[in-house]
Amino acid sequence: MLRQTISDCLKTAMKAKDERATSTYRMILAAMKERDIEARAKGNTRGIGDAEVMSLLQNLIKQRRDSVALYEKGGRADLVAKENAEIAIIQKLLPEQLDEAGTAKVVKDLVTELDAKSIKDMGRVMAALRERYAGKIDMAKAGPIVKQHLS
Description:
Strand content: under 5%
CATH superfamily of the largest domain: Uncharacterised protein YqeY/AIM41, N-terminal domain
CATH class of the largest domain: Mainly Alpha
CATH architecture of the largest domain: Orthogonal Bundle
Order of helices and strands: HHHHHHH
Number of strands: 0
Number of helices: 7
Helix content: over 70%
CATH topology of the largest domain: Hypothetical Protein Yqey, Chain: A, domain1
Shape: globular
């Protein structure tokens, strides 16, 4: 289970006195705890599952990439390095991402399978991608590919 892997990574980072990794894993666990609390309000007493954890990790990476872009514009190389280090740590927890060619093939197959014909079907295709390929596809890159296939 991904939750246990993250806890184990935190323990390892703490023993190694790796401050960056320790703070990153703690931040991930705090975000997971927050999502668990939200899930309890909806009746899910067991917390979020691995698919939602992967989605959370992807969101954390996206947030950091956005921050990197802003810090680069502001000339803050120190903060760019910090954010990039956190991205690298978080990415180790995710399965290997499909490259652009792999993503295009998956999108093409899914569009055919769902019999999607127009841009109106984009939401349905994106939902199926999220469900089947959580953590394996960067949805920010998949969106334009889906749009291209449906246009």
